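Support reply, case 0932

Customer input (verbatim):
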Amino acid sequence: MKRTSLTRLASPLKGFYLCWFSRDFYNEVAHNWQGVAFRFLMVVLGLFSGIVALSFQFQVDEYLNGFIIPIIQKAPELNLEEGKLSMDRPSPYIIEDPRFKGEHKPIMIFDLAEDAPMPDSNLDGMFFIRDKEVLQYGGQRQIVDLNGTWKTPLFPKDFLKSLGQIKVWSGTAVFLALFTASFLVISIQVFLYGLLAYVLSGLLRRPLQFVQAARLATVALLPVITMDFLQRITGVFVPLWTMVSVLMTIAYLTFAIRSISVTLNRPGFES
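Our regenerated output:
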């Protein structure tokens, strides 16, 4: 039987789509690949983890640059002396939510007058009214009475530097965490599905060595890994995904084993 060497020509990127439909691809994986295909798996997980981490990095940059940092840069220095607040700006002082440009929606109000009114209940944010700190979100209000004596910026001076470090390293941290966790979880799945493939190969008259069965399990998991990645990126999730992913992987395992030549591991055997 003459086999088309798809895998020899196919880079891991081509394996992303060949695994969805190509019998020749699974046949080549069983015949010619070595080990459990963990190098292929690491390329796949590295690519997917990198895309997720890059997306997260952009979101962090947008959130910090477009929301947090502008607020911090405008925040005054607050002083509390014997329970009475003062600041280095004229009162009342208002910081508007930078996410709602042109809408004049306060997110912080500093009104230290004795008769200062409480903020509207429909506002979300942190407000300093008279000698009180008022936190509001979603219609819920929490009031903290300030007492004692202190003199400090509302946000520490090195806080912006810390945020800068978060912007620089957040993507790398997410990549390392996601790649490591994904590799460990999927390695366990490869072992379990490899055992299942080993059993199925006997039932389907394509008896495999365990390493071959585990190798097929690695590649058969790729459609599920791809769909899981797409759900993370798009935020659109398949209902009952755990059950669906198990059934989908078993289906691809069956497809992969049926794609293998019956002569594998049985020289001279004719179907």
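We compared this against your earlier run and they match. Two observations from our side: The mean pLDDT is 87. Helices lie at 6-9, 12-18, 23-32, 38-74, 159-203, 210-220, 222-234, 241-258. Please reopen the case if you see a mismatch on your end.
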